[in-house]
């Protein structure tokens, strides 16, 4: 069986819902799609959106729509192209969602602790309870 025949058979098995076919497609493309999603997501957004989650969403969408007959892929290259386009669009949708004013990831800042806060926190955490406090706890 040549490469093209095996691809067509795999797509038929995938359309019928066979888990082994889905696992083969996942195994073949997951790593590359994660890298693509990581490259497309802005660093500030990566704290909110994991590239692996985007990739899972890509596969979920592809498997469901392929089962419905929405996609006509005929080669491994055309399948990669389709999965890459879905990935880029999902990343763009995440950028839009988190780019809105209320959720703008690029406008977030981490609180800066000054030295006094650090000393006070360390002091509070290092204190032993008084004998009266210890008696109340037991």
Could you please describe the fold and organization of this structure?
The chain is mostly helical. It has one domain: RNA polymerase sigma factor, region 2, helix turn helix motif (Rna Polymerase Sigma Factor, Chain: A, Orthogonal Bundle), CATH 1.10.1740. Helices cover 69% and strands 0% of the residues. The chain contains six helices and no strands. The chain has helices at 3-15, 19-40, 51-67, 76-99, 115-126, 131-137. Helix 2 crosses helix 3 (51-67). The longest helix is centred in the middle third of the chain and has 24 residues, at 76-99. The mean pLDDT is 85.
What distinguishing features does this structure have?
single chain; 138 residues; mainly alpha; Rna Polymerase Sigma Factor, Chain: A; 6 helices
Largest sheet: none
Helices and strands, in order, run as HHHHHH
Average pLDDT value? 85
Q: Helical content, roughly?
A: 55-70%
- N- and C-termini, Cα separation: 75 Å
Number of domains: 1
* Backbone structural class: mainly alpha
Task: Give the name of the CATH superfamily.
Answer: RNA polymerase sigma factor, region 2, helix turn helix motif
What would the CATH topology be?
A: Rna Polymerase Sigma Factor, Chain: A
**How many extended strands?**
0
CATH architecture: Orthogonal Bundle
CATH class value: Mainly Alpha
Query: Strand percentage, roughly?
Result: under 5%
User: What is the count of helical runs?
Assistant: 6
Low-confidence stretches: none
Radius of gyration: 25 Å
Give the overall form.
elongated
